[in-house]
C-alpha cells in the first residue's frame, strides 16, 4: 500500500494553530451514523477549532447517500468517507482491489461531478477482514488467508446471510484461495459472530477491519495476501469552495490521518462502544496524545 500521507508531520498542524480562516463563514463538519464516523468528525472539528476556525458539528446525519447529498447541497462542508464505499455507492464504478486506482477514480469523479475534493487517505482501511481466535492462529500458524486455506476444511465459518453468495464472500475465498470450510453458520448481527467466536461455536468469522471486538476479544485479523477484498481507506471529503477560502484546512485534516491506522481505530471505537466514553472526549484525548492539540 503506497503511503500517500508520508511527510506530513504533527508540527505542521501545531504551527497552523495560529491560522485564521480567509472566510469568516463557519465550517460545517458532518458524519455518517456510526461510532467511527463520530470520532473522526470530532477530530476534524477539534483541529479546525484549534486553528481558530469556527465549526458547526452535524454529526450522525445518516447513511452514505444522506451524508453525500448533504455535502453536495452545502448543508455540510466536509465529512469522512471510505474509498470503496464511494466507488460502490456514488461513482457506481467497477470494484477493484488496487487501493490507489480506487482512490484516483473516486477523487477524479467527485472533482468533476460535484466540485468536491478527496484529501489524502488516512492509514485506516476499514474493509472486510477474516478473523480467528488467537489460539486458533497460534495452533495453525495462521497469518494470512493463504495459511487459513490450508486448514479451512477443519474449521467452522460464521458470517452474515449474504456471505455465502457474495463475490467477495465464500465464493471469493474459494476462487482466490481455494478455501472451503467444514460448516457455515449464519448470524444476523455482527456482534453475534464475535460472541460465537469467543464461545468457540465457530472458528472463523468475517467482519470489518476496525471493529472494536477484534482488539478487545484478542482476535487475529488474517492478511488478505492475494487481494480478494476491495480497499476502504478513509479520507476527508471537502467542498472545493471551502478549501479555496481556507487554504490551511487540507493540511490540518490530512495531518490527523497520518496518526491513524486500523489498530488505533479499534482502540478508539472500543472506548466509545465498551467504556461508554463520549466520541468528542475520545477524539480530543487522542489528538492531545499525538501532539495535534495542546495539552
Overall description:
Residues 26-289 form the ABC-type glycine betaine transport system substrate-binding domain. It comes from Rhizobium ruizarguesonis. Pfam families: OpuAC (PF04069). Residues 1-24 form the signal peptide. The protein is α/β, with parallel strands linked by helices. It has two domains: 10-125 and 232-289, Periplasmic binding protein-like II (D-Maltodextrin-Binding Protein, domain 2, 3-Layer(aba) Sandwich), CATH 3.40.190; 128-222, 3-Layer(aba) Sandwich (D-Maltodextrin-Binding Protein, domain 2), CATH 3.40.190.120. The chain is 44% helix and 15% strand. It has helices at residues 10-15, 35-50, 64-73, 83-91, 99-114, 134-140, 145-151, 170-177, 190-198, 212-216, 240-245, 249-257, 262-273, 279-289, and strands spanning 27-30, 55-58, 78-82, 116-118, 128-133, 156-159, 183-186, 204-208, 219-222, 234-239. The chain has a five-stranded mixed beta sheet with strand order 7-6-8-5-9. β6, α8 and β7 (183-186) form a beta-alpha-beta unit.
Tally the beta strands.
10
User: What amount of the residues lies in strands?
Assistant: 15-25%
Order of helices and strands: HEHEHEHHEEHHEHEHEHEEHHHH
The CATH homologous superfamily of the largest domain is called Periplasmic binding protein-like II
Keywords: Plasmid, Signal
InterPro entries: ABC_Gly_betaine_transp_sub-bd
Organism: Rhizobium ruizarguesonis
Signal peptide: 1-24
Amino acid at each position: 500500500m503506497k503511503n500517500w500521507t508520508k511527510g506530513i508531520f504533527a508540527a505542521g498542524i501545531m504551527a497552523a494553530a495560529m491560522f485564521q480562516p480567509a472566510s469568516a463563514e463557519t465550517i460545517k463538519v458532518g458524519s455518517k451514523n456510526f461510532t467511527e464516523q463520530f470520532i473522526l468528525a470530532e477530530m476534524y472539528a477539534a483541529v479546525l477549532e484549534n486553528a481558530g476556525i469556527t465549526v458547526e458539528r452535524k454529526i450522525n446525519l445518516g447513511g452514505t447517500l444522506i451524508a453525500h447529498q448533504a455535502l453536495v447541497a452545502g448543508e455540510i462542508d466536509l465529512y469522512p468517507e471510505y474509498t470503496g464505499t464511494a466507488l460502490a455507492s456514488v461513482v457506481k464504478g467497477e470494484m477493484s482491489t488496487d487501493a490507489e486506482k480506487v482512490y484516483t477514480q473516486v477523487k477524479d469523479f467527485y472533482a468533476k461531478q460535484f466540485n468536491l475534493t478527496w484529501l489524502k487517505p488516512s492509514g485506516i482501511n476499514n474493509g472486510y477482514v477474516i478473523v480467528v481466535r488467537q489460539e486458533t492462529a497460534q495452533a495453525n500458524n495462521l497469518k494470512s488467508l493463504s495459511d487459513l486455506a490450508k486448514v479451512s476444511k477443519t474449521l467452522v465459518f460464521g458470517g452474515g446471510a449474504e456471505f455465502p453468495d457474495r463475490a467477495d464472500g465464500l465464493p471469493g475465498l474459494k476462487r482466490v484461495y481455494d478455501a472451503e470450510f467444514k460448516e457455515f453458520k449464519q448470524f444476523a448481527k455482527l456482534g453475534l459472530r464475535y460472541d460465537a467466536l469467543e464461545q468457540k461455536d465457530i472458528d472463523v468469522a468475517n467482519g470489518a477491519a476496525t471493529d472494536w471486538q477484534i482488539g478487545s476479544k484478542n482476535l487475529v485479523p488474517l492478511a488478505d495476501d492475494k487481494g480478494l477484498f476491495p480497499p476502504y481507506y478513509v479520507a476527508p471529503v471537502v467542498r472545493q469552495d471551502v478549501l479555496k477560502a481556507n487554504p490551511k484546512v487540507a493540511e490540518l485534516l490530512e495531518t490527523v490521518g497520518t496518526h491513524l491506522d486500523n489498530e488505533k481505530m479499534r482502540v478508539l471505537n472500543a472506548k466509545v462502544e465498551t467504556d461508554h466514553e463520549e466520541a468528542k472526549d475520545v477524539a480530543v484525548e487522542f489528538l492531545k496524545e499525538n501532539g495535534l492539540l495542546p495539552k
